[in-house]
Write a structure and sequence with these properties.
homodimer, Arc Repressor Mutant, subunit A, Aspartate Aminotransferase, domain 2, Aspartate Aminotransferase, domain 1, 3 domains, 8-stranded mixed beta sheet, 15 helices, 13% strand
């Protein structure tokens, strides 16, 4: 052993034996201690490094247990034949992304108003659950908590016209996770149709699976049935209540056509993401497509992340009976991924009426804000709006202006805006912004629109 | 209108107008009210059904908003041309699976002892977080809470020799979800090698992605490097600390060979699932493969679900810098799926030393239990054991007995046992059981083994 340059420091968090172990192991891996060479004796190491013989023993034991060295009775420790590691490449640059300032005004269609979240009752329910139900630390049901699914089945029937039983419901931590679960239900590659423009993440989730994805155009009633027939797709992902991002509400006729399409072919399913259905301003909430379906061809899904708060990671879907059996046969377990305490608290939020009270209140607040914002925007010369009857976003355009001409000047004022184009695959709709108001406060609407108009020179 | 058989009940949860709306809509969808036909007038409906004119108006408004009917000035409401739905198929059988009795003794290798869970401190941390940090209801970081990742980077370096920064860590709700995220990082199909016998769920997750999976045999040191070289695989999923299900600890030489294999080819990665590394009984915990890697070719992952309790849905992985950049570019968001309150509580559990105290305590309890159980099983004539140096399970076989001959008699006594075979793809190892002791209590060991021996006649 040419040099014993090991640096041992008793002040470090790891014990001395482990420091010694690591440094010898590194020398072996990097070829500085070649295979077959003998390590210095316990006595030499101990004296040279100024550490106890016991510390050396522990390090040697660990090296032996890991297969770095072998011991030979009386003659000491020998390095095993281990291929040295090639040279360490140069370290890459810093991984730290630049910190971003919060936007001056938050027009993101994904944002919700967390001031509306029933924080006190939620905290109380979580605390009670934590105190009383320690058994929730065990593994849960693969479809999610039965109590939550029971409460959901009843809520969904009353408020969305969804006909399902607790046994058919599956919980997960978000709509994306539910879509990945749906993808897993089909073990043969399917062609999945998505709306274009539409929810990009749905295309991505199916794109990462064994399935193929095609983008179908919309007409003024939503997903084009002609394009669907021509596509040869077996599965369709759609947002009929308040299409993302255009805000189109699919009328009953188109819904019936879609149900017919599904009933006509073996193995066809509609994936109904009941996005933004809970907030509807100009007429009463439309019941879900699922409730009109007599052939069990609709997979219904929605999430509490949008109606309550993004931090509540609970979403749910109702599977037709044949797919529920497949879920079970494939031993899928998406319900296990969600905190059981939060699932129980959510069940009580539903059972005790807090959730529907919250929906009513939030709906009033959002409606007022939506009307105020739309009123301000309608005053912009050349403005047009669409899809403001429901949900937390709408389309806004200015005649003769490109998306870039609206986005860039706002970005310069630290107001990030989303163009319709970024939600498109092949579609080339007229230029528009997808404006959300969930993240705005009522009092900032006037200055926010004022700043935008100044930025646009309108 | 031939007959007005609508059943309206003011005692029901949904308002009367909605009941009327639904029944008319159903008649339209099912073709009983054909397209073009005129609905009875408001006055006739109101009188015939004994409801107010306002209720009828609300139902008609909703039918019109949904596109079921159109109104024509002065001449009333006409049914839109909507394709009627085909006949409803017969309802399928009950979805309710038969309830299962809990096992008499729980030998599942997946079970852990939740009595060891630091319930009081966890509950306290969650409550404090809930009370103090309402901003956690907002959307979190796509890689998970920065504070938790910071605490993890420090813990992983000290206890597992993992060299990573908070910026490279990604949180998710379980190892399966992390594996799905890894699959999503590669947009070109890869060949992924898995251990055989091995963790079936890993094969399934990659099998559902665009990637192909191959099963590689083990030798006494773990994953066969010869088979790996021959396979042409680019990614390898492995459990080097305590191989699932055989319990093999991979020695340093094999680890170095694997790192060499990875460093030799462009785009090769080792996915190190540091399964069961936290509990090691006969020698000190072996540092992770990741810490030996000088070329950033190891994706390191582990979970708190196994060390703390299955109900804690927090797992983590350290990505090499190039893959972290890809995670960001692909806008993956697995960290958002996990409750931020639990992530914050977990960060404090680490920072305040509760977690390492828990590991030390649990390790002592599991070691005692493992030794006691192995001692009892070694007395079984013809018995052999393997892999009991670490983790919460080991292999147990009886010379001359098939797996079925051990499983069936135990199942008859309501003691479900897992055979090694169920974790195999092509491998045909000698018959053995994968026995876990996390779900057993110390006091039930003697009667449990006694019952098994009686069942086996040994």
């Amino acid at each position: 052993m040419r040099d014993l340059t090991y640096q041992l420091d008793p002040a470090l968090d790891h014990p001395m034996y482990e420091q010694l172990y690591r440094q010898i192991a590194r020398d072996i891996l990097q070829g500085r201690l070649p295979g077959g060479s003998r390590l210095p004796s316990r006595r030499v190491l101990s004296a040279h490094l100024g550490i106890s013989g016991q510390t050396v023993d522990s390090a040697l034991d660990l090296l032996k247990a890991e297969g770095f060295v072998r011991s030979s009775a009386r003659s000491g420790y020998f390095v095993e034949d281990i291929l040295p590691l090639p040279d360490t490449p140069k370290p890459s640059g810093s991984a730290r992304p630049a910190a971003q300032a919060p936007p001056r005004h938050d027009f993101s269609p994904q944002s919700t108003d967390i001031q509306l979240f029933p924080y006190r009752v939620w905290t109380q329910l979580i605390r009670e659950t934590l105190l009383r139900e320690s058994e929730l630390m065990n593994r849960g049901h693969p479809q999610g908590e039965p109590g939550l699914r029971q409460a959901l089945a009843s809520f969904l029937y009353q408020y969305r016209g969804v006909r399902t039983q607790a046994e058919q419901l599956v919980i997960s931590s978000g709509v994306d996770q539910l879509l990945a679960t749906v993808a897993a239900l089909f073990d043969q590659p399917q062609l999945v149709a998505c709306e274009d423009p539409g929810y990009v993440e749905a295309r991505r989730v199916f794109g990462r699976s064994i399935h193929r994805v095609c983008a179908l155009p919309l007409d003024e009633q939503g997903l084009s049935i002609t394009a669907l027939e021509a596509s040869g797709a077996q599965l369709v992902y759609l947002t009929p209540a308040h299409q993302f991002p255009t805000g189109i509400s699919m009328p009953a006729g188109r819904r019936a056509e879609l149900l017919h399409w599904a009933a006509r072919g073996e193995g066809r399913y509609l994936i109904e993401d009941d996005y933004d259905s809970e907030f509807r301003y100009t007429s009463r909430p439309l019941p879900a497509l699922q409730g009109m379906d007599a052939h069990s061809r609709v997979i219904y899904m929605s999430t509490f992340s949008r109606t309550l708060a993004p931090g509540v990671r609970i979403a749910y879907m109702a599977l037709p009976e044949d797919l529920r059996r497949r879920y079970q046969a494939l031993q899928l377990r998406s319900g296990e991924a969600v905190s059981r305490y939060e699932q129980r608290a959510m069940a009580r939020l539903l059972e005790e009426g807090h959730y529907t009270r919250h929906l009513r209140k939030a709906s009033r607040v959002y409606q007022r804000r939506c009307e105020a914002l739309c009123g301000l925007l309608q005053d912009v010369p050349g403005a047009w709006l669409m899809g403001q009857e429901a949900g937390l976003h709408f389309l806004f355009g200015v005649k003769g202006r490109s998306e870039e001409a609206l986005i860039q000047p706002a970005a310069a004022m630290n107001i990030p805006l989303q163009g319709l184009r970024q939600h498109c695959q092949a579609a080339r709709p007229r230029p528009a912004l997808v404006l959300g108001f969930g993240g705005l406060t009522d009092s900032e609407l006037v200055p926010a629109v004022g700043t935008l108009r100044a930025a646009w020179g309108l």
